[in-house]
Design a protein that fits this description.
By secondary structure, the protein is mainly α. It has one domain. Helices cover 80% and strands 0% of the residues. It starts with 5 loop residues before the first helix and ends with a helix.
Length: 76
């Protein structure tokens, strides 16, 4: 194998190795994204929350708290 094919080969092996993890995280992303949309977060806010809060259920709780806080301001 020549050196020019080594980076491509390494990339493809890495992509194949991470595929099971990607399949497992896709439903979580859909769940967190749909909750962010329901809480009227912008796409940037939803992605920012996902990048800052890296603790699974805590992300869903944070979105729920944001949604509850916004609804309490509407009732006033």
């Amino acid at each position: 194998m020549s050196n020019s094919h080594l980076p491509r080969s390494a990339f493809l092996r890495g992509a194949a190795a991470i595929m099971p993890l990607s399949l497992a995280t896709a439903p979580w992303g859909l769940l967190a994204g749909s909750m962010a949309i329901e809480a009227n977060l912008t796409p940037l806010q939803g992605q920012g929350l996902s990048s800052i809060v890296f603790a699974g259920a805590a992300q869903l709780v944070a979105i729920g708290m944001l949604k509850a806080g916004r609804e309490s301001f509407r009732s006033c």
